Amino acid sequence: MTARISPALRADWSPQMTTFVDGFRSAVASAGPEEGRQAGDNLLGTLARYPGLSMAFLTFNKHLLSESALSVRQRELLVLRVARIKRSDYEWAQHVVLADRAGVSADEIAAVAVGPAAPGWSAIDRALLQSVDDLLHDGAIGDQAWAVLAGEFDEQKLMDVVFTVGCYSMLAMALRSFGVQPEEALVPFLPAPQRR
């Protein structure tokens, strides 16, 4: 697939978008040091085509990346499962990098693709993955997964689970619909059949 909406070059972004993205990136705690960070130029350049919408979305997304009650590891398990179900290779690759930084092992990342039925998950990790499947297939977390999550999580964490899955599901749809292509640095992290 090729880009359906070509990313704008950073030099062509509005000054407001440039300032906003710089602030967004510096505020995101899980982004890591600048030298190890994935640039995301194609995603951000695509979003820069519609600054008003993009700044509203990124403001919400910033909460999930830097202010969520969930741990970074928990968030990344959710996002990877969303990316797998929604078949968003770009989202998968970006979040493999973030999951690795959060301490998710390579075996766990591979098991996310299998889902909650994969052996070795703790009860809470299995419930997190099941919550993604439930939300994306049925529109609500099922009673079994909810009971496990509610036994460990407070109300804010429970809400962050739902909003994280919803946000990254919407982003996966946008990435695929707009044809956002992975940057060269992301190619090694794409699902195996997609690597070039």
Taken in chain order, the helices and strands follow as HHHHHHHHH
Fraction in beta strands: under 5%
Mean pLDDT, all residues: 92
- Overall radius of gyration: 16 Å
Number of strands: 0
Ends distance: 13 Å
Largest sheet: none
What key phrases describe this protein's structure?
mainly alpha; 63% helix
List the helices and strands and how they pair.
Blueprint: H1 15-27, H2 41-47, H3 51-67, H4 72-86, H5 89-101, H6 106-114, H7 123-138, H8 143-152, H9 155-178
Structure explained in plain terms:
- Residues 31-37 have low confidence and may be disordered.
- The chain has helices at 15-27, 41-47, 51-67, 72-86, 89-101, 106-114, 123-138, 143-152, 155-178.
- α4 runs parallel beside α7 (123-138), α4 runs parallel beside α9 (155-178) and α7 (123-138) crosses α9 (155-178).
- The chain is an all-alpha fold and 196 residues long.
- The chain has nine helices and no strands.
- The protein is globular, with a radius of gyration of 16 Å.
Question: What is this entry, summarized?
Answer:
With 196 residues, the chain is mainly α.
